Amino acid sequence: MKLIKGLRTLLTAGQGTIVGLDDATVDSDPIELFSNWFEAADKSGLFLPESVALATAGSDGKPSVRMVLLKSYDENGFVFFTNYDSRKSVELSENPQAALLFHWGVLQRQVRIEGVVEKVSEADSDVYFASRGRGSQIGAWSSKQSEPLSTRLELQTSFREMEKRFDGQEIKRPPHWGGFRLRPEQIEFWQGKANRLHDRIIFSRSEDSWAAERYYP
Fold it and tell me: Is residue 162 part of a domain?
């Protein structure tokens, strides 16, 4: 399967420079367009096409960025999960404005999303946590994310202690772990083209509708 996936990726390389985007209109649906692009990235053979850079800034205004995994999306926003005690979560509690960046290099495509972040419901967090592998569930209880760690042995010891604690039991979601939803206010689609004449289309939300404009690359 790895060979097939690699060949698929090679065959996909450069495809993005051949086919551009249609002119944007006020009737365009950026969520549907994102869905089409995400599906194309998934079919291209890319490893973890759901990987996305999340940029945040706390009350001091200093930016930070890290990779997270997109778990779901719809017209209401883009959802990821994390430890609520982590640096990203603390910064989001201080400043709920955030940005996402998808980069699918083999397709020469980027999607930038900016908006306000909110926690998903506890019920939604429970459902997703229950779908995770048991090891990942135990890991969520074991890690004091973003806190100093003296040695790796300390983390491994914590994991083993949690394995014993939950032996033979269903593992419930920790209260410090759950999801966030970024509600998009602006979505930019970037398509690489020959001679650096790239396509850039930016969708901006206005109440319950979207307006779209094409920009110079």
Answer: no
Cα–Cα dist 187/197, whole Å: 20
Specify the DSSP class assigned to residue 68.
Answer: E
- Total number of domains constituting the chain: 1
On whether residue 105 sits in a domain, the answer given is: yes
Does 118 map to a domain? yes
Q: Distance from CA of residue 64 to its chain's centroid?
A: 15
Q: Is the pLDDT of residue 93 over 80?
A: yes
Residue 125 included in any domain: yes
Which domain range does residue 113 map to? 24-131+178-214
pTM recorded for the entire structure: 0.88
| Statement: residue 15 has pLDDT above 60 | no
Here the CATH number for the domain that contains residue 52 is 2.30.110.10
d(C-alpha 6, C-alpha 67), whole Å: 23
Predicted confidence at residue 68, as pLDDT, reads 98
Q: Are 49 and 36 a contacting pair, CB within 8 Å? A: no
pLDDT average, residue stretch 9-20: 52
Question: Beta partners for 114?
Answer: 99, 186
Catalytic residue (choose from 132, 196, 200, 205):
196
Tokens 């135990």, residue located: 138
Q: Known catalytic residue: 205? A: no
- In the chain, the percentage of residues whose pLDDT exceeds 70 is 88
